[in-house]
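Researcher: Last one for today. Full complex below.
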Amino acid sequence: MATEVLVPLAGNIWLVLVNVGDEVEEDDELVVIEALKMENPVYAPCDGTVSEIRVKKGDVVEDDDVLMIIEES
Amino acid sequence: MVFFENMGLLALTPGMVFMWVIGFVLIYLAITRQYEPLLLLPIGFGIIITNLPLSYLMEPGEGLIWRFYHYGIEWEIIPPLIFLGLGALTDFSALLSQPRLIFLGAAAQVGVYVTFFIAYAMGFSLEEAATIGIIGGADGPTTIYLSARLAPQLLGACAVAAYSYMALVPIIMPPIMKLLTTDEERKIRMKKGRKVTSREKVFFPLIAAMVIILLVPASAPLIAMFMMGNLFRESKVVERLNETAQNSLMNIVTIFLGVSVGATMNAENFLRKEVIFIFFLGLFAFMISTASGILLAKFMNLFTSNKINPLVGAAGVSAVPMAARVVQKVGAAADKRNYLLMFAMGPNIAGVIGTVIAAGIFISILK
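Model: Here's the assembly. Have a good evening.
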């Protein structure tokens, strides 16, 4: 099942820590969003494989944009 | 002989040397700890040079830094210009999407008033007590503005206290926040507010300026500049003015502000036992303000099903955005998937405006 990872708070993409095809475990850090000079990690909602990444470093993101898609294992 | 008589070294007093130490400590904290370096560095330097005898830098009518101080601060020009920049930097979305959070910014002014009464009871004059109380709002330019208006003799001490406590927000606030909330409360995830339109954001500074100034005219200099800066930002048609207000203009006036505030702190003015009380009372005011925001949030939760995480109440003290960052950190420590940062910005910004209104009320009553 595909799970969308959503933006929890608006800001800029500071770091993308995974690549398409990576195996991730629940609670792994996927992306770091910079907001108000603070780095906020976004965690994996489930175990699985990253099937698609929709953002890159420097992108401006709004609440509830889709960051990436994880194919649940 | 005349040369020796005019040599500063011979006119040195122990108090002056002690003030150098304070200046060096502020510069040290600014450089190594990066505690509010944009202000504490020039303030520290201002303290040192004003305590070099016979320089006459602060001599009324002729001294260089006296002129900065007189025309910049006594004439009330610099703090409103800083507010212009702050307005241009402020995004009101967080507040507009959840207007109920405004109350938390208002609650945080409780510390200001409680401390005002305590300072008065301790023997400070009404004007001095008001200036000390306003430290609880943790807003530097407002503290300087009110102090220049009501109690210029306390300006240096109050400004340094306000900026120090702003720098110490990450140390002072978390214990209070943890003490007053349960683990469950810290884990509350808040519902996102509605989306704010750009039209609302343009109208807000216009309406807010009119309403606030009609109610508390004495707050006009700071509020008018703040809201004009915000209108620059949200109108999207004067990007050059917006950019100048946020950056170059703000940086320029910050230089004059810092060194002048530092230069008000000469030994005879600063080395008095009242100054120690000012630091204690200021800290007390700040702690009460933090606590009262949290307690109001808990109280509001009794009447609503859409729960507020009480931690965001702590951000009602102005210190933008440090207080909101601390809320995010303490919230994430309880539940790492809880992102409170943007919710905390609502009360944080309301707190700035609340502190300006509190200052305006003091001015209209005491002047």
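Residues 2-72 of chain A form a domain with the OB fold (Dihydrolipoamide Acetyltransferase, E2P) fold (CATH 2.40.50.100). Chain A touches chain B at residues 8-10, 27, 35-38, 40-41, 43, 63-64 (CB under 8 Å).
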